[in-house]
Amino acid sequence: MRVSIILLGTFLYSSMVFSQDQEPNEVLLESMESGAMIYEDFCVNCHMADGKGVENLNPPLASSDFLMNNRGLSIKTIKFGQKGEIVVNGKKYNNTMTPLGLADDEIADVMNFISNAWGNLNNKIITVEEVSKIQQ
Predict the structure, then answer these.
(1) How many Å from the N-terminal Cα to the C-terminal Cα in the chain?
(2) What residues does each domain of the chain span?
(3) Hey, what CATH class is 2-132 in?
């Protein structure tokens, strides 16, 4: 499993969209690499290696409108967990995600990974400072 996540990360590095005269942001790339490992340790069992989740149980992160349109709420979900119904890509999910106990830097890293994987593209890095401002 670790190999597939690392290979995915390597693929992401080479396929991310950058302006034609801009080098990849090394800080973002390092964060994404760390985030891929955190994802494998904490998230892959529910959201799967391909980010597609489990139909009718755990929402997809792949090409996720919720993730990309609800940045602060997505951070809050990882930080504090989630209860109650949410709608992702037009489908309702009503499962509980327990808090993972991650530090703010780990949350920033996993958010940078998932928001730039599986059809998602986030041009603005998620920072530790941003995560630290999210309250329950």
Answers:
(1) 33
(2) 2-132
(3) mainly alpha
**Taking each helix axis from N to C terminus, what angle separates 26-42 and 104-114, rounded to the nearest 10 degrees?**
100
pTM above 0.85, yes or no: no
With helix as H, strand as E and coil as C, how does the chain read? Answer: CHHHHHHHHHHHHHHCCCCCCCCCCHHHHHHHHHHHHHHHHHCHHHHCCCCCCECCCECCCCCCHHHHHCHHHHHHHHHHCECCCEEECCEEECCCECCCCCCHHHHHHHHHHHCCCCCCCCCCCCCHHHHHCCCC
Integer CA distances (angstroms), 84 to 9, 40, 77, 133, in order: 31, 25, 11, 23
Could you give the angle at which helices 71-80 and 104-114 cross, rounded to 10 degrees?
A: 130
Structure tokens at 61: 């992160």
Distance of CA 121 to the CA centre of its chain: 11
pLDDT, tens digit, 9 for 90 and up, residues 71-89? 999 999 999 999 999 999 9
